[in-house]
Design goal:
This protein has 137 residues and is mainly alpha-helical. The protein has 5 helices and 3 strands; from the N terminus they run H-H-E-E-E-H-H-H. It binds zinc ion.
C-alpha cells in the first residue's frame, strides 16, 4: 500500500501497461484483491478454479466434502462491477487528482481521511480497511 504514496501519473501508466493478470497480481500484493482465500464454510484451503469463457475463476475449497466456491472478486471492493479492475483504478486516480484541487473540500476531507495531498493513497488505504483481503505470503 505504501507504493501508492506520492503515486505519479508516470507510475500509473507503468501499471496500466501491465497485462490484466499481472495488474491483478499487483493488486493482490497491495492487499486489494485476495492473494489466497480461506474457505468461508469449513475454514479449509482454497485454490483458483478457472471458469471457461470468464475473465475470473473462483476460489474453490480443497476439502473433499466441502468444495464450496466463492467468486474471485467476491467480498472485495471490485465485486459486482462491469468495469475491469484496471479501469476502476484509473478512474480513482483521475478522481483523486481532481479532488486534490478543491481546497474548500480540504477541511472535510482531512477530518475524515487525512491529508489531502495524498487523496489517492488515503482512498485505497481505506478501501483496504473496509475490504480486508488475505495475502499470499
Ligand atoms: Zn470448505
Amino acid at each position: 500500500m505504501e507504493q501508492l504514496k506520492n503515486f505519479k501519473s508516470s507510475h500509473l501508466h507503468e501499471k496500466l501497461r501491465l497485462s490484466d493478470n499481472d495488474f491483478d497480481a499487483w493488486l493482490e500484493e497491495l492487499g486489494l484483491l485476495h492473494g489466497k482465500r480461506t474457505c468461508g464454510k469449513c475454514g479449509g484451503r482454497t485454490t483458483i478454479k478457472v471458469k471457461k469463457d470468464r475473465r475470473y475463476g473462483c476460489w474453490r475449497c480443497t476439502t473433499r466434502d466441502c468444495r464450496a466456491e466463492q467468486g474471485y472478486l467476491c467480498g472485495t471492493f471490485f465485486e459486482g462491477t462491469h468495469l475491469t479492475t484496471k479501469q476502476i483504478f484509473h478512474l480513482s486516480y483521475l478522481w483523486a487528482r481532481r479532488l486534490g484541487k478543491y481546497t474548500d473540500l480540504e477541511f472535510l476531507w482531512r477530518k475524515r481521511f487525512g491529508d489531502i495531498s495524498n487523496v489517492f493513497y488515503n482512498f485505497w488505504y481505506h478501501v483496504s480497511l473496509f475490504y480486508p483481503c488475505e495475502r499470499n505470503e
